[in-house]
Amino acid sequence: HRRIVIVGAGLAGVETAAGLLDSGHTGPITLIGDEAGMPYQRPPLSKDFLAGSGPRGIRPDDFFDRIDFRAGHRVRSIDRPARTVTLDDGSTVSYSRLVLATGSRNRVLDIPGIDADGVHSLRTDREAETLARRLDVGGSAIVVGAGFIGLEFAASARARGLDVTVLEFTDRAMARVVSPIVSDYFAAAHRRAGTSLRFGEGITAIARRPGDSGLMVTTTVGAELSADFVVIGAGAVPNDDLARRCGLTVDGGIVVDDYLTTSDPEIMAVGDCANFPSRFAARAVGDTEAVRIRLESEQNATDQGRYAGRRLSSGDDGPYRDVPWFWTHQAAEKLYIAGIPQGGDECVVRGDPASGSFSVVDFRGGRLAAVESVNMPADHVAARKILSAGWTVSPAEAADLGFDLKAHGK
Ligand code: FAD
Fold it and tell me: Quick check: pTM over 0.95?
C-alpha cells in the first residue's frame, strides 16, 4: 500500500487527509502534528472564541479514527533518498508520498522587552485561551499591527469594554492586502467603536510599568504609552525550515509548481507554507503569466489541501487554479475579498461607502481582477463565480448598482 505522510495537522494537513479519503485512497494515511489535542480552526480564535464561543474542530473527532493521526509529535527531519521522516521521539515513518502542511508562525519583533510577561501573540488555541482570560479581567490593551488579526482582536477586546490602542507602522489599516478606500472605511468603524488607531507609529521597546504588573510601550515617534497588556499582530512567516534542511527549494515559503509539487516530485506543499504560482496574482497590466505568491487564508489551506488529496489519490488532476478568497469580520463589519487586490490599472467603487455597504472592483488590462466587498456578500459570491469562469464585466457595468453582477459576466 502507498503510505501518504502529511506533516502539520492544521487546516491544510487535515483537508489533505479528507481529500485523500473522499477520492477513494485506500492506503494508509499518517498525519503528524506538533500541537496537542484535536485539530482546530484558527479564524474563530480572534473573533467568536474571544466572546466565549469555545473552540471549533476542523473535522469531527471520529474523522481521525479513519487515519493514523499522531498529535503532539514534531517531525524533526526528512530523509529523501530513504523516503522517511523522523519524529522528535526518534521513531521513523516511511512514505511513498509526503505532503508538507507546516503552516506559518507569528513574526517575533526584535525589540527590547518582547519577552516580558503580558506580551501576547495570537495563533494557537492556548494563546487564545490566555487572551480570553485576559479579556475577562478588563483594563487596557495595546495592539501592535493593524493587519487582520490585530484589528479582529482589537474589535473583540473593545466589544468586551477594554480600552484599546492600535499602533501601525504604515499609514493605513490592512495596507498589505486591501485598497485605501477599504482601509479608511475600517479605520473609521474602529474609531467609532472607541478604539484609538495610531498610524505611522511602530513599537521600539516594551518595559514593565513601575509599581504594578502593567507595561510601558515606547513608539517610533518617541511616545510612551501605558497598558495592562500588549498583543503583537505583526504578520507571519512560513514554517519552511524542515523543507530547507532536506534540500528542497525554499524562497519565502516552500516553492511548488502549478501542481503544488516541490522540487522533489514525491513531495507536495500546501497552505500557509507554500509559495505557488497564481494567475490571480499578476501585477503588471496585461501580464498573463502566473506570479508567485504565498497566501494565509482559510480558502487557500482548504482548497490546496483537498487538491493535494485528490491528486495523490487519482493522479490526474489538472493544475491548481482555485480562485483565492478571504474574509475578515471585525465587530459588525464584514469584508470578503475575491481575487488578489494589487491596485490594478482601473478601480471602480460599487455602491456608497457612506451607506455601510459597497464593493471596490479592480481591473487589470480591462478585465476583472479582484473584488473587495464590504457588507455586500452577493457581490462577493458573484465575483468568485466570474473569476472562476475566467469571465469579466466592464468597469461601467461594475460601477452600476442596478447591474446584477450575479446574472452577468462573459
Ligand atoms: P497552520 O494552521 O499554521 O497549521 C500548520 C500546523 O503544522 C501547525 O499546527 C504547526 O504547529 C504544525 N507544524 C509545523 N511544523 C511541524 C513539524 N515539523 N512537525 C509537526 N507539525 C508541524 N483566514 C481567513 O481566511 N479568514 C480569517 O478570518 C482568518 N482569521 C484568522 C485568525 C487567526 C487568529 C489566525 C492565526 C489565522 C486566521 N486566518 C484566517 C488564516 C487561516 O487560519 C490560516 O491561513 C490557515 O489556518 C492555515 O492553515 P495551514 O494548515 O496552512 O497552517
Answer: yes
Q: Which atom of ligand 1 is the closest one to the Cα of 304? A: 52
Task: Ligand 1 pocket test: pick from 16, 42, 107, 330 the residue with the most ligand atoms within 8 Å of its Cβ.
Answer: 42
Q: Torsion angle of alpha carbons 50, 192, 140, 49, nearest 10°?
A: 0
Give long-range contacts, CB 8 A cutoff, 24+ apart: 400-403: 400/350, 401/350, 401/351
In sequence order, what DSSP letters do the residues of 160-215 get, joined into one string? Answer: TT-EEEEEESSSSTTTTTS-HHHHHHHHHHHHHTT-EEEET--EEEEEEPTTSS-E
Distance 11 CA to ligand 1 centre (A): 7
**Residues 399, 405, 410: CA angle, nearest 5 degrees:** 105
Q: Where are the alpha helices (DSSP H) in 209-256?
A: 241-245
Summarised one tens digit per residue, pLDDT across range 280-307 is 987 655 556 778 999 999 999 999 999 9
Nearest atom, ligand 1, residue 329 CA = 28
H or E stretch covering 140:
strand 140-144
Across the chain, mean pLDDT equals 95
ipTM of model:
0.99
CB < 8 Å & 24+ apart, contacts of 357-366 = 358/185, 359/383, 360/179, 360/181, 360/182, 361/395, 361/398, 361/399, 362/179, 363/395, 363/398, 364/282, 364/285, 364/286, 364/287, 365/285, 365/286, 365/287, 366/392
CB 220 within 8 A of CB 203: yes
Identify which of 250, 297, 333 to mutate to test ligand 1's pocket (most ligand atoms within 8 A of the CB): 297
